[in-house]
């Protein structure tokens, strides 16, 4: 019997543990002004931002709030008020473009008169308006994604109430919108860019919710339909963790909590103590999942003001990438198109430059043992580029180059 017990213990220790299927959330500081739903949201490495949305008092607001997770504080008041139109169902995007300060782009909002007709550009530090930009699709409640410093906007509801499948790209360096291959179906949907592809999950086409997953390849300008979700989902919060996309809440199944692996197609479903919601916001920082706001019904009275945090550090099998050598360039931005790259040590180094669509446009070999290299992008148009140095030890981290 002693030997049998030892064998069973050994087998138990050797067996793989079951994947965690439950998350425990803890409460954080409540939202200001009674809460928000259908607000734009985004984050950097220090703060979370919340723009517009509905409140208990009104269906449309214009305030910009900033949350400090280290201090667990929404501050003493909004960063700004009235710098964007009163709206809800909009998107907020932080987009570094070589400028100081970092800019906050607000678009695709629904106002009392219809979709916002322009995109607002704010100072992310103060919340004050810097500029507006026109030329994009005049639609509300669409999706957005960013990749290599470019902004992608897709889907939404037009001024006449019809849904659109249009996909457009905005280059902050040139302030030009470009039409791309349209989505396979017209709808409002959430999406995000991972490893050079924009993944659009679920959505609503005005009649039914969707369970589709479509992936747009930025380099080839082509869409691919992937295996669908087992159930429909819409009005979910969405946030990226490595190769995974977390989705929180749903228009109908408000306790919906899943993570989708963009590489394998695996879908993990979780239970939790998070109260159900739709039209919420989410962020991930230091392996902590934050969820805040939203609503539970069509009335403003159902607006939520709670904020929650869950530790997800050991939930998903995503290996942390090895830290890559850093590559720096100056001046950056460079009005002339000439950049000086500080090279990593080594004798065999190859400079590779890609455009914002991920296409290799230039490859050069600096002289051995030199510490810097002059990169000339003068023959190429204004825009955003990404440079890397390939060595015998691998690639450096990418350095974004801005050519105004």
Descriptive report:
The protein has 404 residues and is mainly beta. The protein has 2 domains: 23-311, Neuraminidase (6 Propeller); 338-403, Immunoglobulin-like. The chain has 1 helix and 37 strands. The strands form 11 sheets. Strands 32, 33, 35, 36 and 37 form a 5-stranded antiparallel beta sheet that branches. A 4-stranded antiparallel beta sheet has the order 2-29-28-27, with no helix packed on it. Residues 1-19 form the signal peptide.
List the topology elements:
Blueprint: H1 2-14, E1 22-23, E2 26-27, E3 40-43, E4 48-51, E5 64-67, E6 91-94, E7 103-107, E8 110-111, E9 114-115, E10 119-123, E11 129-133, E12 139-140, E13 143-147, E14 150-154, E15 157-158, E16 167-171, E17 176-180, E18 188-194, E19 197-204, E20 213-217, E21 222-226, E22 237-241, E23 244-248, E24 257-261, E25 267-269, E26 271-272, E27 281-285, E28 288-292, E29 307-311, E30 328-330, E31 338-342, E32 349-355, E33 360-364, E34 372-376, E35 383-391, E36 394-395, E37 399-403
Parallel strand pairs: 1-26
Antiparallel strand pairs: 2-29, 3-4, 4-5, 6-7, 7-10, 8-9, 10-11, 12-15, 13-14, 14-16, 16-17, 18-19, 19-20, 20-21, 22-23, 23-24, 24-25, 27-28, 28-29, 30-31, 31-34, 32-33, 32-35, 35-36, 35-37
Signal peptide: 1-19
Keywords: Signal
Protein name: Putative secreted protein (Por secretion system target)
